[in-house]
Amino acid sequence: MILNNDKALKVAEFLLQIKAIKLQPANPFVWASGWKSPIYCDNRKTLSYPSIRTFIRQAYAELILDTFGKPDVIAGVATGGIAQGALVAQELGVPFIYVRTSAKAHGLGNQIEGDFEAGQKVVVIEDLISTGGSSLSAVSALRAAGCEVKGLVAIFSYGFEVAKNSFKEAKCPFETLTNYDFLIQEALRHEYINEADLESLKKWREDPSNWK
């Protein structure tokens, strides 16, 4: 499930417009993993634009309510999901917590920050789903703490099969405001890319580790 097509295309348009997502098939980026990539995504940029920030916050809330119902708590995944999660929790009028990548090595040693109770229904917020590893690590931490994770929602997903399979194996539904297919559609319409770029972009998504 995803937002209706018009809203998904609008989110994709915003991400391209503010260069939160950049497409460079001819001059690829190199990710930390070593993968060459025609796309770079930094959805934290959306926070700098009040009207876009508001649209995304409301879109998150709409998708959560339609898909999972109103949760008891919203949990953001550090770091990209913290600000987005706090905004969504405010929109829904529910408590907010966030999940670190690992427990703190000092103080109370918390991995989950904020007040919550075992048995509460939680929806997890991410800004981006790549392979799904960090997202599902947060889901595991919440489940270990006794929370009932209803699912996860992100702004954008590359649509990698490895992520889809990992979420399925973890029995954690996930939804996105927009995705790679909508993004490419908007990028072509607004001439960020041309027809000749499409085949390269499709091949990257099919086998990103061996692309180029």
Number of discrete helical segments: 7
User: What is the C-alpha radius of gyration, as a whole number of Å?
Assistant: 17 Å
Query: From the coordinates shown, what is the CATH architecture?
Result: 3-Layer(aba) Sandwich
Any idea of the CATH topology? Rossmann fold
Shape: globular
Spatial gap, N to C terminus: 32 Å
Average pLDDT for all residues: 94
Text of the CATH class: Alpha Beta
Low-confidence stretches: none
> Which sheet architecture does the biggest sheet show?
6 strands, mixed
Structural class, please? alpha/beta
How many beta-strand elements? 10
Give the topology, please.
Blueprint: H1 5-17, E1 21-23, E2 29-30, E3 36-37, E4 39-41, H2 50-68, E5 73-77, H3 80-92, E6 96-99, E7 112-113, E8 121-129, H4 133-144, E9 148-157, H5 161-169, E10 174-179, H6 180-189, H7 195-206
Parallel strand pairs: 5-6, 5-8, 8-9, 9-10
Antiparallel strand pairs: 1-4, 2-3, 6-7
Helix pairs in contact: 1-6, 2-3
Summarize the structure.
By secondary structure, the protein is α/β, with parallel strands linked by helices. It has seven helices and ten strands.
Structure description:
- The protein has a single domain, classed as Rossmann fold.
- The protein is built from seven helices and ten strands.
- The longest helix has 19 residues.
- It starts with a helix and ends in a 6-residue tail after the last helix.
- Helix 1 crosses helix 6 and helix 2 packs across helix 3.
- It has 212 residues and is an alpha/beta fold.
- The mean pLDDT is 94.
- It has a six-stranded mixed β-sheet with strand order 7-6-5-8-9-10, with helices on both faces. It has a two-stranded antiparallel ribbon with strand order 1-4.
